Amino acid sequence: MTSPLGTALVLGGLLAAAFGAVVGIEGGLRHRAGALRIVLGAVTAFLLCMVGANLVMVYALVTHDFSVHYVSMVGSRATPLVYTVVSLWSALEGSILFWGAILAVYVFGFSRAHRHDPPTNPLLALGTMLAVGVFFSFLIAGPANPFGRVSPVPPDGPGPNPLLQNHILMVVHPPMLYLGYVGMVVPFGIAVAALIRGQLGDAWMATLRRWTLIPWTFLSVGIVLGAWWAYAVLGWGGYWAWDPVENASFLPWLTATAFLHSGMVQERRHTLKLWTVSLSLASFLLTILGTFMTRSGVFNSVHSFTQSEIGPTFLVFLGAVLVVSILLIAVRGPLLVPEGTLGGVASRETSILLNNLLFAALTFTVLLGTVFPLVREAFSGVRISVGAPYFNRMAVPLGIAILFLMGVGPSLPWGRASPETVRRQFLVPAAVGVAVVAVCLAAGLRGGLTLLTFGLAGFAATVTLREMLLPVRVRMREQREPLPQALFRSAARARRRFGGYVVHLGVVMVFVAIAASQSYVVHTTATLKPGERFQLGPYTVQLAGLRNGIEPHRRWTAAEIQVTDGRGRQQALAPRMNFYERSTDPVGSPAIRSAAFEDLYLTLLAFDQATPSASFNAWIFPMVGWIWWSLPLFVFGALFAAWPERRRVRSGATERLPVPNEAPSPGAAA
Amino acid sequence: MTAWVLGLVLASYAPQQAGSTLLDPAREARVQALGKQLRCPMCQGLSIADSNSSAARAQMDKVRELVASGRTDEEIRGYFTSRYGEWALLEPPATGMNLLVWLLPLLLLLGGAVAIARTIRRPASAPPAPPAKPAEPETDKDRPPPDDPWLEAVRAELRR
Amino acid sequence: MTRRGLWIGLSLAAVTAVLLFVLAKGFGRDPHEVPFQLRGKPAPDFTLKRLDTGAPVKLSELKGKPLVLNFWASWCGPCKAEHPVVAMAARRFGQEFQFYGVVFEDTEENARAFAGLPDPAFPQLMDERSRMAVDYGVTGVPETYFIDAQGIIREKVAAPLDPRTMMEKLAALKQPAGPVSEVVR
Fold first, then answer.
1. Predicted-complex ipTM score
2. Which of A404, B90, B156, C21 has its CA 20 to 30 A from that of B20?
3. CA distance, residue B133 to nearest chain C CA (Å)
4. Residues C64 and C12 in one domain
């Protein structure tokens, strides 16, 4: 029963999306105001069908209906309920189904938010998004159908991939990433609408920016949680391996981040329109490319789903979107003429241009490095690797330059700055940066690039804090407002600026944490018998014994460890190896002792029950936790910036809000 | 009894050789540095220094053996490429077609920098002044020791 | 402006074409396959201890008769399924070929207890710290090497062997090494 129902819902979604796409694009091209209501209806139907299909699948998973193809692949009676629900997105077909539902939710949200806009732009945007929806529902209905029927019905299934049921983060990380990935459909639709019409007004630009900020936030959270998951689960002590799929999630984040910055130039100076729009198209294209990388079986990755039939279909779609995008840019792009000029060398806009150049270079480098083994194999038949050493060598200098610009950009005014201004603006932050390096040197820290990173972090953080607090000080001095009120008001008056700076602080934190945890790591391996111990930094690690256990879906062996830190505090840790019934290799679970400034990280390498003895890898990673602890800053800053400002008058077809003939509103300055 | 039987069953699964004996700190640092450059054959793009897999452990032991016998880094990398091909190196050597992966990003950076420089140097050739140019002074030449325009904007906002 | 637009469009189109071509060519490629460079090269020499008698076995003493080396470990599931295939081949073709097992990353006790007992049809060698396995370019277990009478590595199978593949590889091993022998995969 569930199989036909699910298939019917997906087909319904396919029809609704196809109908809405045609009506939307046609209506948009001919400026039919009445079409919007029809498209809104189609969007609602699409939403109901896609969400319904997902609920049907969850129901099938929870009731262990092994007659459904997907359930027979990932379900198992032994799997705990949480992971049973989670297995909705733990394998290829389910993840595409889930993808469809998120897409529908986004399109629906957009259609509700813009149903009262002048209809042409929303029609074109919704039509484009629904066209993407057509592809995904086609994929679900055809090549990646999870609702196929299995007969005879197996009594039990293999359960989801062991790596995916090892940690609770796996419940949160993929949906976040999907929300980020799929959400890029919306800015894509908005940008395509702008290109088709050949105009990008202020109001539509604000729409584009807001709808980029939402998936950008999810993507940031997803990436950081993914790093955390890798660190807590994979057991090699790292959080980022430049794995093709990690890169795939990083690429659209980079272009979206570049967009958020170039969008400011477009708003303030009315130039860079085509570039800004292209970044939106690129973000979407990169999410499609990323999905292809994960699901085509072409790339080797922790995350790769099993080989499947959908690769060629996906490639055709990717090609189609690429061709459409390039045609739009080449044919319609010249219509987006710049209406303003850029300022001088020492100006905000120049620093943002440089920022965009660095982000573009980083995107290109990561993309090139990821696909280069395929290029080499396609053209010369030689198998090569492009791994972490390459990416680190290329990305670290670019990252450091970006960190530097994070301090420079906010210090410079729009337009032109005199040498005097530059000197005044940079004196204190630069001094702070130098002081940070001096303190680090005095504390015995070494390493050129690391200290440079710390110094620039001090520089950028000082600039950011100053820019955040200056208006507060003005208010306190000139309006005699008390501190909390001044802080709140100046933040609320310039939400995007304030939110952006909060995110900048989070980024500084991540930079510092990465530099410290990579540079000052301490590592050893040891084999212990019960009662024996080894010393690593301030920690004494003692083996108490081995313990075995059985859970419904796995058996495990843990080494019971007693850790004593420098101050004599004790903590029990139990790194272990898990044995899943249907997987031959054991899956290790590291044990981590987290503190404010460093983590002790233990993995069980091997054990011998007879002796008994156990071998470990042990690391100290300074400040590594700060990478994930920066998440609140990212989320808070982005939410603060994305929160709708005072209601604006929705302007008509020309969509150029007259710029008030006064000082620029601080709200638009960030 | 059950625990003992279970122990035996479990023991038969885990990679069993005990942890490796490390070399003296100086040479071990070399081993780790080399290990970071070599790709683990049964992992997903990890280096043999990072991976916990049995194959990676075996290869790390081989690196130790080669370092201990006085081979140079180049010889040790050669040992692995003669078995696993160029694939074994996580960083593609900058020769032949691989030059692309090293040089193209630099070319992009250079080209972009030139483009930006030309855009900034040529404000005159751009279209005439924007239709709605903010009244805010764009340069701070004509102002007494100026605060930054942002603060001016804050003050203007306050005065409203 | 239009000329610039054309240029940008053309270069984007070129990049797109290359990207799509490369991705399309990637289909059917096994991303897990590791290159093996020792095919057609002399097998590296080794001296290993027999698991049963403790007697040393040298590769140079084994020349003159084609050799099959099977790498395995007690903790490896697929090796258990493969073991009888090698043992069967050793019983049937022991006259024409020599069969040896090599224990990878494992302890002697575990190897002795492997699946009850390693089949006595072919002797097992202990590879201390897997030194010899890495010399041979092993990427994991199970893996089987086919070495001809002259000590040249003709072939390596990096997967559990089924009886049919075993027969094919043994038949190929009897053929004299020709320049085309490397094509057989």
1. 0.86
2. B90
3. 24
4. no
